[in-house]
Amino acid sequence: MHDPLRRPAVVTRVSELIGATPLFELCRTENDSRLLLKLEQFNPTGTAKIRMARQMVLDAEHRGRLRPGGRIIESTSGNTGLGLAVVAAERGYGFTAVVDRHACAGKLRGMKALGAELVYVAEEGNEELATAAREELAARMARESPGAFFTEQHDNPANAAGYHPVARELDAALDGRIDVLVGAVGTGGGLCGTGRALRATVPDVRIVGVEPKGSIAFGGPAHEYYQSGTGTPEGASIGALVDFDLIDEGVKVGDVEAFATARVVARRTGLLIGGSAGGVVYEALTRLASLPPGATMVALVNDGGEKYMDTVFDDDWMHARGLVAPEVEREIEETLMKFRRTF
Ligand SMILES: Cc1ncc(COP(=O)(O)O)c(C=O)c1O
Question: Closest ligand 1 atom, CA of 303?
Answer without folding.
Answer: 1
